Amino acid sequence: MKQIWGILILIGCFGLANGQDVKSQLNTAADADYLTPLEKEVVYEINLFRSDPAAYSKRYIEPLKTYYDNKILHYPGDKAIQTVEGVRALNECVQELKQMSSRPILQPDQKLGKAARDHQRDQQKTGKTGHTGSDRSDMKQRIERYGKWQKLIGENIAYGNSGARQIVIFLLIDDGVKNRGHRTTLLNPEFNTVGVACGKHPVYETMCVLDFAGGITEKNKP
User: Fold this and answer.
1) Cα–Cα dist 10/175, whole Å
2) Can you give the pTM of this predicted structure?
3) SS (H, E, C) the chain
4) Which in 74, 120, 169, 213 has the greatest CB count within 10 A?
């Protein structure tokens, strides 16, 4: 069994008849009533990216390069963001994604969502960042409170993002992260399920925890 870790701090092609059919196919969280509207949008945005990484990069990421002023990204319609690498990280992301084929779309899972929510609520209280909870729990321990995971698990955390597309794009660009671990997690073809928990953070204003798994079953099932 493998585990994948990641953290981000910031100071399609299905051969269907029309766009509405494609959106319906990707909107796997539409009926997940335990998710907030933003959390549903995050699942959809991840699936939009995974359905065609190259097209997503060309349409939504590459145009952002014109909004950089040295290392400051003046994100359209939002506050400016101080980056570490500047436009170099974006260009490197675009080049990699142009070579990528589609990945399986993800299904939302409430068990993973509960694990993500535990961590989000904890850090909303403590103001801390990272993958270790105030009770010393790690991602694996939180997920195993609610189910038995299969194949592999991973966790991405984004701080300071205002919308679903911004969350996904900045995890993909992975500015300041040498191994591009967030991007690797989002691209991993072995993931099939995701749990999402977005909420407030006392330092960065917002945060969103994404827990991924190859699969997950109830604790008492084989």
Assistant:
1) 9
2) 0.89
3) CEEEECCEECCCCCCCCCHHHHHHHHCCCCCCCCCCHHHHHHHHHHHHHHHCHHHHHHHHHHHHHHHEECCEEECCCCCEEECCCCHHHHHHHHHHHCCCCCCCCCEECHHHHHHHHHHHHHHHHHCCCCCCCCCCCCHHHHHHCCCEEEEEEEEEEEECCCCHHHHHHHHHHCCCCCCCHHHHHHHCCCCCEEEEEEEEECCCEEEEEEEEEEEEECCCCC
4) 213
- pLDDT tens per residue across all 222 residues of the chain: 444 444 444 432 333 344 556 778 999 999 999 999 999 999 999 999 999 999 999 999 999 999 999 999 999 988 888 999 999 999 999 999 999 999 999 999 999 999 999 999 999 999 999 999 999 999 999 999 999 999 999 999 999 988 999 999 999 999 999 999 999 999 999 999 999 999 999 999 999 999 999 999 998 765
**211, two tokens:** 């827990």
Q: By the 8 A CB rule, do 153 and 212 touch?
A: yes
Amino acid (1-letter code) at residue 161: N
